[in-house]
């Protein structure tokens, strides 16, 4: 079921909302996601709205430089990122750990072998 979710960084400077199905999240084992402990969900960028903090975001790219990993320059939390999905659609990657009032135990966690990409 699609719902409006809200979230952001630790200090509150970066805030966003998105229309998403937050039942399944992905636990990627790539060097970046595994070190940060991300649990990710993805939505078309048109379903994602950055409410505040654009001016406080710092971008980090690695490997193929295909994903804009964005983090708050004040508290360092990476609540979301942007890129192009495998289907060619502009996509927001949402760190489920940064969703307000999330019950992580209620989610289905799917492992992803990101090391192989």
Automatic annotation (TrEMBL):
InterPro entries: CENP-V-like, CENP-V/GFA, Mss4-like_sf. One of its GO terms (molecular function) is carbon-sulfur lyase activity. Residues 5-117 form the CENP-V/GFA domain. It comes from the Bacteria. Gene3D superfamilies: 2.170.150.70. Belongs to the Gfa family. This is Aldehyde-activating protein. It comes from Aquisalinus luteolus. The lineage of its organism: Bacteria, Pseudomonadati, Pseudomonadota, Alphaproteobacteria, Parvularculales.
């Amino acid at each position: 079921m699609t719902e409006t979710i809200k979230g952001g960084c630790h200090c509150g400077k970066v805030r966003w909302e998105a229309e998403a199905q937050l039942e399944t999240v992905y636990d990627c084992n790539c060097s970046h996601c595994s070190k940060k402990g991300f649990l990710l969900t993805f939505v078309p960028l048109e379903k994602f709205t950055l409410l505040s903090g654009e001016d406080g975001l710092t971008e980090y790219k690695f490997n193929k430089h295909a994903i804009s990993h964005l983090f708050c320059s004040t508290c360092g939390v990476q609540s979301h990122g942007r890129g192009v999905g495998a289907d060619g659609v502009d996509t927001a990657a949402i760190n489920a750990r940064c969703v307000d009032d999330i019950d992580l135990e209620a989610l289905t966690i799917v492992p992803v072998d990101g090391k192989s990409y």
